[in-house]
Amino acid sequence: MEIFTLITILTVLSAAFAYINTRFLKLPFTIGLMIIAISFTLLILLLGWFENDILEDSKALIQAIDFKTVLLDVMLSFLLFAGALHTKLEGLKKNRWPIAMFATLGMVLSAFIVGTLMYYLMQVFNYPIDYTYCLLFGALISPTDPIAVLGILKEARAPKQLETKIVGESLFNDGVGVVLFLVIFGMAKEGVEAVTFSHISTLLLEEVGGGIVLGLISGWLGFRLMKTINHYETEVMITLALVMGVYELASYMHFSGPLAVVVAGLFIGNQSPSVAWSQITQGYVDKFWELIDVFLNAILFVLIGFELLIVTFNATYVTLGIIAIPITLLARYIALVGPIAIFRKRLEFIPRTSIIMTWGGIRGGISIALALSLEPQMGRDLFLTITYIIVIFSIIGQGLTLGPLVRRIIKTD
User: Fold this and answer.
1) Which of 353, 338, 330, 354 has its CA nearest to residue 138?
2) Is residue 83 very low, low, confident or very high in pLDDT (cuts 50, 70, 90)?
3) At what angle are helices 380-392 and 365-372 packed, to 10 degrees?
């Protein structure tokens, strides 16, 4: 099937689902789209019982879409830039140390706890699987998805100081999470002895350090170019070219593309409005990236709903997936408690921040994309099913209840 046909089908369905949600359901945008997409997919599965061709054609359509490539290599750069562009650096600077701990040490601790508990859970269910593969699952499920978090926090109306911490963490921990995933993936594929400390250190320096430096340089260059002109059409094109060029260059240089784009977006978004952009330019840049954000979010969450067609479901997989939900929440809570306790007195932490940040740690498409990149011998079908169940619960269950939880805690205290 041609790429234009696939894009057309997804765009038409996304627009139709968005209309149904806006006109009738009135749920938060991303959550509503996912619920409708899942309902539509279940209808296809039901019709497949009577007309198998409908089910087979639908599966062929979804299998023709490389979800991992579409998200990680195409959508992610635009969505991260759109989120970073509207994130104020002042709040991030003030909370830089807890955010850094959440996104690094917290990530590693969460991945280790999830991997260890899942390993023993598999033993209980008489489903033995290599410990390294369980750690690999811990690494892919621990990052919170900035795409899902940003959209849901807008609807939850969380206090600004809390939103800064959650958004700041989610913007950075997916880049760190991908690096951690790559390290453990190498251990699982080549053996623990093949991955040395120097190899890990080099990878971290290249991916994380290189991504940050590239983001700063490209953000500064884009800022300087826009400062010399006053033509909003050209300046919008510069931001678009910046995102695409930086992400491609980062991939070529083996740097972290997500981190490079986030840093560039933060630089442009915080420096340009007062220095490089006129009010007209700022208005057009803001609206352009808001539309990109909304459109790609719609496509992404509809795709996540449709992935139900290719996920393997059986009693064991589903049971393990359901049990894995509290395991991932517990691991995230433990990973957050330490940094929050350290910085509670120095910074503005609202009451029960650990509970809210645990529940606000939404998992999304990045975890599914990483699960799809596993090889069959690594338990791909099992971990893809578990990941899908966690992501669906996270986006719908946690997403719909995050706002009421925040308001209840604030009101109580």
Assistant:
1) 330
2) confident
3) 170
